[in-house]
Amino acid sequence: MRGATHAKWAACAVVVALAATACGGGGDSGSGGGGKGGGVLSSSWGDPQNPLEPANTNEVQGGKVLDMVFRELKKYDPKTGKATNMLAQKIETKDSVNFKVTIKSGWTFSNGEKVTAKSFVDAWNYGADLKNNQKDAYFFGYIDGYDKVHPDKGSATAQKLSGLKVINDRTFTIKLNQKFSTFPDTLGYAAFAPLPTAFFTHHDAWLKKPIGNGPYTIQSYTRGSKMSLRKWDKYPGPDKAQNGGVDLKVYTDNNTAYTDLTAGNLDLVDDVPAAQLKNVKSDLNGRYLNTPAGIIQTLSFPFYRPEWSSAKAKKVRIGLSMAINRAQITKTIFQNTRTPATDWTSPVLGAAGGYKAGLCGASCKYNPTEAKKLIKEGGGLPHGQISIAYNADTGSHKEWVDAVCNSINNALGNDKACVGKPVGTFADFRNQITQKKMTSLFRAGWQMDYPLIQNFLQPLYYTNASSNDGHWSNKKFDSLVDKANAESDTATAVKTFQDAEKVLRDEMGAIPLWYQNGSAGYSDRITNVALNPFSVPVYNEIKVK
Asked: 143 has which bridge partners?
């Protein structure tokens, strides 16, 4: 689950940028990429942090590649984010604990091997196994037997998840350790990808050139320079590549990538630098995307400190939220690439998925008069002043933290009420959080793993949840989350999750700031460019002129 606490937020390239010398990626479609697929496009990228094992990739650069090379049981619609069957023919359950999965016939990996039920079960067992040290192992935590395969402490007492059973080539069963009615919708996440036999029998060779079952194959990769992917002509899925391939070029500075884009040496930049946002539309003659993504930024409180968890402190927390002029900050600091948050999820979920505009109500509306009143009624700011902690090493947080503090100071008529508190490095920042050393507010955020309201609430606010950094705890909230997970009807589950979210609102367990948009600029060589709800380009749909 990817929060601001995880590597997904970081640009992972740590090498010298490739000096782009050729125009746009050219028309060579490479091996496996000829015919109707068209030419090859070039896109900015960063080296993946880890080897491209599906359960070991939790950052955006590696995720881009997995999304091109693999297909899972489910796939998230690139426009709506809705989970639809891909390799799954059907997933059946009567109790939201035991699931029977039937996979479609006719699917193969790019080396010709059939994709079977065993391809999934073996992959998931590998991902969960403690000794394999996979960063996304916890995604398998809902499956029965995970505590034996991947215990929190000590050594594993099993190597396979007891909740997974292969019935035949096209059927396997899953037993969970708790009710989770929307569990099937999580199965489009890359950690749940199937793996070919070669992954296990020739692991080192596979790591050098991963073999998957998606619309592209990896032709070559030179770390620090470029990864070349080419269209797989025999791909059996419905979402075939509309181009001949993609050359992912490594950049360590997105300003350099942007310069290459405007000079005609690059086709696509999917992270437009903040300094260029004012000019991007004119620079690129309108070839610019600014679309909502499944990302929310928040401020957390250290509820393990009595001054923040007392009964009166609730008014202070709500008052601080009302003292933040979100509309002004998103306009002036972020050039409208952020949208003021009015709930704790994301607009990309849609109403059916759990997003409810305005759920936060008055508590998220700028109202300096009411903010000042509530904070006074709550006993005033703890110790007379608050701070907002953030990691200073990226250089991307100071400006907005200062703006938030200025807004609070203006609302309270006290220019020392709020100050930014930079922490040297991301590692130091995280260590202070995990060691419960935060004394006041601290920056937080979340990028969805899958488009479900559950993913925005349970990991972050459920008692002792994996990413509950503020250690907020509320029995009513927990009970409603448990009830929602046990619901067999999705609409009822969503409504129950929203009831839990209202508890979060009433207690202001965290302050929602803004939804983050995805941004991209592209050359006149390509068309049909779009970002999916995860803010990643939909590479397979891009067409090269």
From this structure: 176
